[in-house]
Amino acid sequence: MAMVLIKLTLFTVMFALGLGLQGHALQQLRQRPALFVRTLIGSCLLVPLVALVVLKIPITMGLSEPVRFGIGLMALCPSAPLTLRKAGKSGGNRELAALLQVLAVLAAIISIPLLADLFRVVYGIEGWDLRHFDVALQVAIAQVLPLLLGLGVRRWRPQLAGRLLGPLDRLANLLLLLLIVVILIKAAPALAPFAATNLPALGLMAALVAASLAIGWLLAGPDPAESTTVALVTSMRNPGLALLFASLHAPGEPAVKLAILCYLLVTVIVSIPFLRLQKRRAASLPAPVEP
Known about the structure:
By secondary structure, the chain is mainly α. The protein has a single domain (2-279), classed as Up-down Bundle (Na+/H+ antiporter like fold), CATH 1.20.1530. It contains twelve helices and no strands. The protein is globular, with a radius of gyration of 19 Å.
């Protein structure tokens, strides 16, 4: 059931994202290509590489293998479904977040297989058959296909897209919440003991989330809304996709899924003070002068 819910949630979220992407949002890509390139480099390349380096530090070598795999999977998977919701409620730019998420999904077809190879070589991982074609196919089916379907409906049937967007957006949020609740209920008996016995891992996750927020903030421009949005896009990883990979390639390792859930919870907690700081920063800026 969990696997079906994961796939259904990813499909619905990405289909709703495609439906809601406005045509004028694409103009931002043509007007400011450098911002999008920097963000993709940060989200799809720098964050996984930082995790790769940190996981090789001697102080982290004592972490269990499933915990390291869980952290690695989260670092590999960009484009979190929670990003749009967070950006809309936290003073970010929702349209910019949507476009960045679309680009990250497309880039993930290339970045995840290549970086998975790098992780496997560096760590000598055996038994995880993350082949290029298989990973690209999973990303394409789970995210790119529903995204393109949504974009197609938006392009050729805009009135239908307008009618479907609200209900589908609510359904996507409901499914995402249901997925988290189902997995948390299923994992609840083991989650607290797992967290208690892996406190160093929680600290490492918090450090990686803080580093990811910093990467996004530094790559964005001076505008508070943009810096908030890019930081969120860079730091918030895709737990649905990470859980999908864990279910397919490590079905006998429940600790991997527990590590993914802990990373998600740590991400939400660590982002709170950052978002509050960004709101205060935005409030302190003078209001724009009307021409």
